[in-house]
Design goal:
Layout (H helix, E strand, L loop, with lengths): L4 E10 L3 E3 L4 H16 L17 H6 L10 E4 L6 E3 L5 E8 L1 H4 L2 H14 L8 E7 L5 E6 L2 E4 L17 E10 L2 E2 L2 E2 L7 H18 L1 H4 L6 H8 L3 E9 L2 E4 L4 E4 L2 E9 L3 H13 L12 E5 L4
Antiparallel strand pairs: 1-5, 1-6, 2-4, 3-5, 6-7, 7-8, 9-15, 9-16, 10-11, 12-15, 13-14
Helix pairs in contact: 1-4, 5-8
Amino acid sequence: MSLPIVHLYVTAQFDQGFDKPEYAGSLLRGQFGRMLKKRLCLLKDTPCNECSLYNHCSVPALFDAPGPNQPVPYVIHDPLWGAMHIPPGMPWRFRHTLIGHRAIQHIPLVVQIWDRVFRQGLGAPSNTGRIVQVEDSSGQVIATAHSTGVRLVADTPVTRLKKCPNLPSDWRITLHTPLRLFFKKQRIMPQQFKPEHFCKSLWHRLHALAHAYEELQAHLDLSDTLRQHLFTTPVEVKTLAWRKWQRFSTRQQAYQDMSGLVGQLQLHIQHPAVKELIWLGAQVHIGKNTTFGLGAYETAHADCL
């Protein structure tokens, strides 16, 4: 059964190269949002939630939460941690995840906005480039480069995520980007981390998404019984470290500390529905600041460890 979630894998090239920051998720998110509003917003001096066009506009459909204190319908993720120089012509790939039917129906617009971002320069006019292609989670190419921009492949339906198959019981989870967890407004450091912190963060994330996007709720078992199964899942910490990272907020004109947990956890999962929840968490990230890719984790299983 297909879920109302789509992964878009965007491959780009730079004309003069690009000095990628330590983590580019925040940069990508900011550039996409600014270009989206620049190209589509008709009432730029009006906040989105006060705009008379709110329910008819693509900007909030792709970039805003459907309601107060609800999650936004996207995750933008840079899979390469670490500052590096990307030479001219070298492919660079990142992922843009769309959540919910309303955002998914705007995929052609998402592709064109990314094309504009790179043609005008990612973060600076000197960082111009182009989109080479866009793929979905099945590896199917849905858009390719063209002399005048990027062009969608005709009559190509985008593959939505399907529920994970029957998986083994022993899982290893690798936390790739800082997982930012809090307890009583205090961030959880490696020495304070407890196994239930991971499970509670996962539950909170999926519960919030399911209530914000009803079409996702139909695919999830969020019963109290399953919550108990999840919270009692055996979790063993293999390695855990604190990754320091800060981003510059253009809006606040200040650096913000975005440090968090990275490392590996070992889980033994018997309940099939718990396996689905943990697999789904890997698709949508967990913890704070998932919008620009924090809280990313990858799952591996006993037969491939």
